[in-house]
Give the backbone structure.
Amino acid sequence: MNLEATQTETDFLVPFGETLLCLGQAFLTPKESERANALRDDLVPDLEALREATGVPAAGALDALASALRSTADAEGGLLRVYSRLFLAPPFPAPLNAGIQLDGALMGQSTVEMERFYQRHGLTRDREFRDLPDHLALQLQFVAFLHAKAAETEDREECAAIAGDARYFVRQLMLSWFPRWLEQLDEAVTHLPTAEAWRQLGRVTRDVLEADVVYLEALAPEVHAETAARPSLEEALDARMAPERSLEAPAACRVCGKEFAMGRDMVFMLQQLQARGLETEHLEACPDCRAGEMGLSETTVELPAAVSKHV
């Protein structure tokens, strides 16, 4: 990316950040009519206005996105139905959670690393945000925040350090899983043509992120974000459990009444289920009673006489 002589090297931070923020909002669940209408009617004009400063996405890509969004919005069930089928309803044809794409599981090493970036920059997840910290919408909004933070500081070294964190985050924790995700969207469109809106949105997002990395490399060519050391289980749980959400273990088993201590891993599991409004009573039981609560029971194997006499 060539910077014009009339612009400083940091002039692109704000428009790129605003572009990423728009895209982050676009990947939230369009369950309210206001959000769905904004996605259909306002997203592309906003991106077009910002394109004058960033140069991306290409005009043709925005035209394709606008057309696809209108078609999907006008289909039965609208944007929410297609979003749900792609990203919410099992078997999740194209998951928006980076951890699933990178680690093959939820709350894996990649997610812990993302959370450490959030903590490094003084952020905690909004309680109203019901998804996991590796959701694409949250990733995009975080990188947008880093752009704004870098633009605000007058310290050149601090700006370069923040830009270095943003570059690492985009390159290693976002663009690294986009090819696989876009292939999943390609496959989804063959079965669900109205998924074209999200495929086009995914392509636009990729183009913006790729251009952003080039810009960030020019802004901070010698800054390399340190990769967080692989955390222990205790460190991972500490990173995932915000102090204000810490839970006290039940004083007594819900089934037998016996006092028991709930481990930190079980507390974390309890938090995750509660955050999603799911049932947790089966966890509020001591180990002796928990198996029965989960539909399991101790089994006694009756061996044939010919075998048991040798045991």
